[in-house]
Amino acid sequence: MDELEYGPVEMFVAGYTGDGPDPQIVEAILELVNAGTVRLLDLLFVSRAADGNLTVDELEAVGDRYGFGSIELAASGIAGDEDIEAIAEAIEPGVSGALLVIEHVWAKRLANALYQAGGSVLFSDRIPAPAVNAVMAEAAAEAPAESTTEQPVE
Q1: Cα separation, 10 vs 83, whole angstroms
Q2: pTM exceeds 0.90, yes or no
Q3: Residue 83 class from Cβ within 10 Å (0-12 exposed, 13-18 middle, 19+ buried)?
Q4: Angle 143-144-150 (CA atoms, 0-180°, nearest 5)?
Q5: 33-82 pLDDT per residue, tens
Q6: Which InterPro entries did the record assign (predicted)?
Q7: Residue 23 and residue 2: Cα distance in Å, rounded?
Q8: pLDDT given for residue 144 in this prediction
Q9: Residue 123 lies in a domain
Q10: What's phi and psi for 126, nearest 5 deg?
Q11: Does residue 31 form part of some domain?
């Protein structure tokens, strides 16, 4: 293989209350896909009713209702039953989640360069945005205030 067909792929679940994702969530996903930043490989919607029953819907069945319109998946079926079972435990009654499988198109060139050079990613970890923002806010609060003394103009 001369070149990798896909860049790094990530599976994650965006949780929310109610049956369907908020329009802001849908808009953010569509913006990333339309900009070519990510490629949507698979998307499932998992909901747990108040009585505990679990419902799993594929994009094709509910995409129009949730605002995804005619978006097409690049490789439907990547998220399997084991994945759904694993996330189902995290979904409490009255909560839903969108299980997204996305290719990080922005990282494909780097992945290709590593692959062609015989290298590999030795470690990768995703830090959730709220955690990064909390750490940065704490660091900013602890930073000494910069001196505001005026310098004479010559």
Answers
A1: 12
A2: no
A3: middle
A4: 135
A5: 999 999 999 999 999 999 999 999 999 889 899 999 878 898 888 898 89
A6: DUF6325
A7: 40
A8: 76
A9: no
A10: -100, 130
A11: yes
